[in-house]
Design a protein that fits this description.
Layout: E1 10-18, H1 21-35, E2 38-41, E3 45-46, H2 54-57, E4 62-72, H3 77-94, E5 104-110, E6 114-119, E7 127-130, E8 133-142, E9 145-148, H4 159-177
Antiparallel strand pairs: 1-4, 1-5, 2-4, 3-4, 5-6, 6-8, 7-8, 8-9
Amino acid sequence: MGEIAKHKPVLLIAAVTSRYLTALDWTIEKTSEAWGDVALRSPVFDFTETSFYTESMGTDLKKQFIAFDRLLDPCDLPATKHQSNQWEEDYSEHAETDEVRPLNIDPGYISEAKLVLATTKDRDHRIYLSDGIFAEVTLHFRAKQWTSSRWTYPDYQREDFQEFFTKCRNLLRERIKKLPR
């Protein structure tokens, strides 16, 4: 029988998508108030791999990733997803935009082995966590590189995204080395 051990902490990240740069800035402010200081911030990328969000979010979408200074217990992922969903609603109610959904915030985490995203949608490759939230291993780290699966979103297969995820993974590894044993 395997020995049960506490999971190492992980690096909390968020993928923020909007056509409005002010929405990205608003999200950084809101998330850092609740989740702690921002440790890493990706460039703002053009989000062109799918038209899935066009009807609800408009065109010319941008995506930015944020990694937080504070490490996370992976069990806390459902709570972060609920919080991010509430922020999306708050922004939508107060922003003066034409879109139904002017902001999308997808929290997740990076461990040494994988990038996990939280979602409210059940699919065959997702595991139920709690409180209506599922987890998806979007990428896994093997042989010193990120590897996708058949269900990995096309944008997460981008080299520039994966370069940022590698920076996040390296930051996590540095932080884990400093933890008390």
